[in-house]
């Protein structure tokens, strides 16, 4: 079974392919609703990839940092998570 990071790469590749298709659709002046539907599909793939990366990070890097005795590392990791959480909103 693939891990979350590998699955996120798959989603990024799918999103990339769809973006190329969307650009072509816009250039061909295709129906706006069809373009918007494809755009929403890309947004969904990117959100899903983001969630998978976050889950992977929390179960690996973050978990490791929290079990460390180094308070600076713990604080830095918490600040990074908060920063990414704010940016995702």
Chain-wise SSE layout:
Elements: H1 4-27, H2 32-66, H3 71-87
Helix pairs in contact: 1-2, 2-3
**Helix/strand/pairing category:** mainly alpha
CATH class: Mainly Alpha
Helix share bin = over 70%
What order do the SSEs take from the amino end to the carboxyl end, as H and E?
HHH
Q: What is the CATH architecture assignment?
A: Up-down Bundle
Classified in CATH, the superfamily is Metal-sensitive repressor, helix protomer
Q: Give the overall average pLDDT.
A: 94
User: So what's the overall shape?
Assistant: elongated
The figure for the number of domains is 1
- Residue windows where pLDDT falls under 50 for at least 5 positions: none
* Total beta-strand segments: 0
What is CATH's topology name? Methane Monooxygenase Hydroxylase, Chain G, domain 1
Backbone CA Rg: 18 Å
What count of helical segments does DSSP give?
3
Largest sheet: none
Q: Give the strand content.
A: under 5%
**C-alpha termini separation:** 30 Å
Question: Could you explain the architecture of this structure?
Answer:
There is one protein chain. This protein is mainly alpha-helical and 89 residues long. The chain has a single domain, classed as Metal-sensitive repressor, helix protomer (Methane Monooxygenase Hydroxylase, Chain G, domain 1), CATH 1.20.58. Helices cover 85% and strands 0% of the residues. It is elongated, with a radius of gyration of 18 Å. It starts with a helix and ends with a helix. 6% of the residues are buried.
């Amino acid at each position: 079974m693939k891990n979350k990071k590998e699955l996120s790469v798959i989603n990024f590749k799918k999103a990339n392919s769809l973006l190329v298709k969307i650009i072509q659709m816009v250039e061909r002046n295709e129906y706006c609703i069809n373009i918007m539907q494809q755009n929403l599909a890309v947004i969904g793939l990117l959100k899903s990839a983001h969630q998978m990366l976050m889950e992977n990070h929390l179960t690996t890097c973050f978990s490791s940092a929290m079990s460390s005795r180094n308070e600076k590392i713990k604080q830095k990791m918490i600040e990074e998570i908060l920063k990414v959480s704010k940016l995702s909103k």
